[in-house]
Amino acid sequence: MMGNRSFSNEYLKLFVMCKEFHCLPYEGGYLDQPAIYIEAFEIIQQTINQYQANRNRKGVR
Hints:
mainly alpha; about 70% helix
């Protein structure tokens, strides 16, 4: 289980860096990126969206 958490942390770090610097992990466009990164980024973004929606629904800012 700890190994999976380590990979998850790496994907999360990469996601944050890509968002912050407005770049992709590899050269090229969206379709040039490794599928595992795109899948991980989509899951992370969906989780963030769900969390924010729940907070908004509760009126927490």
